[in-house]
Amino acid sequence: MASTIYLVSAALMVLLLLAVVGAVVGLNWKAYTPTLRNEQSVWSALAGNEAVWTLAFIVAALAVGGGAALFVSGDVYSGSLVSAGGVAVGVALAAAFVFYLFYGTYAAAKARGYRRAAAVMAASWVLGLIVVVAITVNLLTA
């Protein structure tokens, strides 16, 4: 007999599928025309500013350096604070790896002549592949 949670999950997926189908069918998607606006958001303006990138790098480097110093300090601070420093450094390095992998794939695709959407798709595909490999390894070792 199937567990109740599986039945509820299946019912929610059916409702989600019906909502998506209803949204797609209900819209007049053939009459859609995109508008080209040259308005730049605040986040786009910040992303294009070199000073913001430099400041973000300095803050990230100081945070990782401080977390590493806290992690290796040993008995000077409490155990929970030392382990929090180690977790912070691990999370920061994992985020840097993911960003480097995504941006590296994106830049390589752009250098090969792909457009922006195709380059983002390739970078997202690589990240998805890494997630699938991690899940597979986790399932095989469990």
* N→C terminal distance: 25 Å
Taken from the alpha-carbon principal axes, the silhouette is extended
Share of residues in helices: over 70%
> Can you give the mean pLDDT?
86
| Content of β-strand | under 5%
Structural class: mainly alpha
Radius of gyration: 23 Å
Task: Report a brief summary of the structure.
The protein has 142 residues and is an all-alpha fold.
Describe this structure as you would to a colleague.
- It contains 5 helices and no strands.
- It has 142 residues and is an all-alpha fold.
- Helix 4 (79-111) packs across helix 5.
- It is extended.
- 3% of the residues are buried.
Offer a few descriptive terms.
0% strand; single chain; 142 residues; mainly alpha; extended; 5 helices
Blueprint (SSEs and pairs):
Layout: H1 4-26, H2 42-47, H3 50-72, H4 79-111, H5 116-141
